[in-house]
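step: validate -> pass
step: tokenize input -> pass
step: predict -> running
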Amino acid sequence: MSEPEVIFEDWSPVCNINAFVEKSDACYYFYLWVNPQSDSAVVKSCWIGNIGNSPEELDIEAMGEGIAPRMPKQYVLHDEEGLDLDPDRFEIVWFEEGNAAALLYDDEIISVIPGWSGYNGFNGYARYAKGITPLAWGLLDAYDTISKRVEESKAFWSEFEEDFWTKAQSMHLAALESFFGKYEKYYAIDGGKFPPKALVRGSKKGVVYGITAGVSLIPMPNVDTVYGDEFKEYRRIELGFAVTEEKESLCNSVFSFMSGLAAFPWREDTFLAHGHTVPINFIEGFEAVLFISPRRLSGVETPEYKDYMGEKINLLWMVPVTGAEYQFITKHDIDENLSYAYDIERIHIFDGKSKFIGMP
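step: predict -> pass
step: emit ->
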């Protein structure tokens, strides 16, 4: 038996994920290799089709040896002689978040590895699979939902073929300058890579602000796992930090942290939201930042953004918290945590002091 051969591949536009199709003597498989060549690498797989006759039973022994097995006959929808696929007719459509993909053949969806692949024994969907199997679930059962996501993703990525950043940048700067006046500094934080991102500094009434622009261009992964049908309301974010002028010496270290954090959701295949925390080590006496959303907390100021691609942009203010507060916050829900805040309308403005009183 010859070694399997990679016959087609592509890379996610925003995540460190390699998508490829592998052909063996027995079958074709679609793979997503997440963070390849790293300690955190994960491989997601989905059967595409068999080559030659289909077996009566699943080859468990081959699976145990790491060999991609053929699908048993009772779960196969393609012809008995199997598939013979031309690599030049493949196309990969990345989902909007960049962490999931559909494989097309002659413009028809034949295999899909969505963001929820890997949970509860689910690998992905395949056009030629029937029912629920260990190798793939039947695509026909989910076709309406999946095909809609694929069409939306095609339209989404086509938006970036034009001079999109000039328009998006102008929208962000207009929102920020309406909030704090003429901006003072503009930092590119994308490292020259897609998507473009910036951090904009401004000030008003004795407070210095640093707010990102462009993080919201790409929706964050896996927001639907928490927000369900409302996930599109919360999957686009910008990050903000506000500090009194007396403490503005912190800005360089905080802005550097924000620059790295701006890529965090796509690097780690996760999302940031109201009530989440991230550890820090650059503000003495404080061990983490708590994210709060003005959309979820009445009275807290925010720039007023226009919708982007028909979706809301959510600013997340970063609120530094002490070690004891961090331990409490991670064990309780956000509403209970915020009940200890002593000045909710200025909770986002850091002055070197804790914003909470009386946390047990």
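step: describe -> Residues 164-180 form the longest helix (17 residues).
step: cleanup -> pass
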